[in-house]
Amino acid sequence: MDDKIKCSNEKYMVPAVEQASRVLFCLAGNSSSQMSLLEICSQVKIHKSKAYSILQTLQKFGLVQRLSDRKGYSLGPGLITLSRKVLDDFNAPRLAEPLLEELATKIGGTATLGMIADRKVFVVAKHEGDVIGVTIRTGHRFPVTYGSHGKAIAASLPEKELELLLQDNKLYFHGDPEMLDRSRLAEELAQCRRDGFALDLGEMKPGLNSVSAAVFGPGEKPIGYIALIGLFSNETAREYGPLVVAAVKTLSRQLGARLD
Please, what is the end-to-end C-alpha distance for the chain in angstroms? Predict the structure, then answer.
């Protein structure tokens, strides 16, 4: 039945629209700021004349732009108009609300969504459980390296970006920067990469534990985190880890990340 439905849907595919879509995703997924016509043809696997026609059409609507040196193409400003509407209707805090509510209800604590802005993170959404409500104000700002969310974000960074982050003279992974243990941090980051989540067991505030995992956006880059915070035990905190991982995977895919 599924094969029949697939064949039926493919019958209505418009080749030119499909190819144009593939060109846009090709440009979006490229690590460089621009691509030559030949590079686009090679990756999308279409003839040079067809690719040129598609690029000219997309350029007319501002979805693609040809750079001033005329040697390459990049995504155009016309996409901002489209993306603004998507962001208005389909933004991270709104998408996260049911996920945060489910997590907070299960643990009886607080679930938060934080977004990265430079070397800070801002709490943009939260849900407090019924058993114990840990009050965190929406809009509250933390250092990006703070506690469990700091470890989760750091563990998800490419090596060069992580090295740059760790050069900061004030790192809050273990609370006060003077308490930082770099050897221990390296072990924690390696564990987070294996498990998908990071822990803070009472270091930020005695008796208060937290579990965090990084949220990814397009290009699979970390853009924030989801954290569970409560008075649960150390063992329970580890048990909650997979719940947070499942939530961030759902949100990340909704935000455009292509996760395995």
Answer: 26
